[in-house]
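Quick one: examine the sequence and fold tokens given here and explain what the tokens say about the fold. Here goes:
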Amino acid sequence: MVKPDGDHDTQAVDEYGIPREPLLIPGMPLLNSAAQLLEWTASCINEFHALWRD
């Protein structure tokens, strides 16, 4: 992947376009693997479902 000369503020990516640094989203824990992302997503769905039933 070739970057323009003036483009210095972009995040480093691997050969598949995946960022090398973890993505930080406010309110979301630092996730280091797909398994952690899946577990966090499932916990959010479970919390929403519990609120929906009440």
In short: The radius of gyration is 17 Å. DSSP finds one helix and no strands in the chain. The chain has a mean pLDDT of 73.
